[in-house]
């Protein structure tokens, strides 16, 4: 992806040129820039569970909604698994997060699906014919379970989507330059060892693209940010760089 960087009201985010071609759709890969959280969560932390003040996170989420022109924003307590939540009701500032979900679906306009990150991937998926959205939390544990294939299968089962008609974009996340796994023989099954680019370092970006194409998506319908969260300290939070930190977010929504 030739990343497209924008700033609205001090909030900085990237967008996928591929997904920008759909006028009914809005999305953003948010950075840590903007927002009101204090260090070490500075500044646009979107997670309630890392130790930040709730009031700051509420304000940060309000600014995200405002930047994208959304009515509401919905998230979940991510568990690195295959759980899903189908979201059709709006979420307010005090609405609880969905319990234990890593795959979010919606067809409701104006409702943003939020995945929180600090090195993990968020993979946004769109079916323009059926106006169905998915936002998937894909950390390495999720990739081992092939959470992306699970999301595509459920789009087929729940909404009648056809994989070849889906479009997807992979967010900024841990790049092959920094994705070190000293214990990869215990953490990854042997079929994933081929993604090792040098001793103990893995290309998780290529893995996601391959898992999506294996699930039936067309390669020309896929976009990759290609931005490493650990390398770009001024732009992104990174758990690998600083375990005590905030979480940026990826949001996708149908316009109100």
Supply the key terms.
256 residues; alpha+beta; CNF1/YfiH-like putative cysteine hydrolases; 6-stranded mixed sheet; 5 helices; 14 strands; globular
Q: Please report the number of helical segments.
A: 5
Structural class designation: alpha+beta
Q: Beta-strand percentage?
A: 25-35%
- This entry's quaternary arrangement is single chain
CATH class: Alpha Beta
In total, the number of domains comes to 1
Main sheet: strand order: 1-2-3-14-7-4
Uncertain ranges: none
Helix content: 10-25%
N-end to C-end Cα span: 27 Å
Supply Rg: 17 Å
CATH homologous superfamily identity: CNF1/YfiH-like putative cysteine hydrolases
Q: Tally the beta strands.
A: 14
Q: CATH fold name, please?
A: CNF1/YfiH-like putative cysteine hydrolases
Q: Let me know the largest β-sheet.
A: 6 strands, mixed
Instruction: Give the overall shape.
Output: globular
The ordered string of helix (H) and strand (E) elements is EEEHEEEEEEHHEHEEHEE
């Amino acid at each position: 992806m030739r990343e497209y960087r924008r700033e609205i009201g001090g909030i900085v985010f990237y967008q996928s040129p591929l997904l920008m071609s759909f006028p009914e759709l809005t999305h953003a890969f948010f950075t840590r820039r903007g927002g009101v959280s204090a260090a070490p969560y500075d500044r646009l932390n979107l997670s309630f569970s890392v130790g930040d003040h709730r009031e700051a996170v509420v304000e940060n989420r309000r600014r995200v909604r405002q930047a994208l022109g959304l009515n509401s924003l919905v998230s979940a307590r991510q568990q690195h698994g295959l759980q899903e939540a189908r979201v059709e009701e709006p979420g307010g500032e005090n609405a609880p997060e969905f319990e234990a979900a890593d795959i979010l679906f919606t067809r409701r306009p104006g409702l943003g699906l939020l995945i929180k990150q600090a090195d993990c991937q968020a993979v946004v998926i769109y079916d323009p014919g059926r106006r169905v959205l998915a936002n998937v939390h894909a950390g390495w544990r999720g990739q081992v379970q092939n959470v992306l294939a699970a999301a595509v299968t459920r789009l087929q089962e729940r909404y009648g989507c056809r994989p070849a008609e889906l479009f997807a974009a992979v967010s900024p996340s841990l790049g092959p330059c920094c994705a070190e796994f000293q214990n990869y023989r215990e953490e990854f099954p042997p079929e994933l060892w081929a993604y090792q680019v040098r001793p103990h370092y893995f290309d998780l970006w290529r893995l996601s693209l391959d898992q999506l194409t294996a699930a039936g998506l067309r390669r020309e319908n896929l976009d990759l940010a290609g931005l490493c969260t650990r390398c770009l300290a001024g732009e992104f939070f990174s758990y690998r760089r600083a375990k005590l930190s905030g979480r940026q977010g990826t949001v996708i929504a149908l316009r109100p």
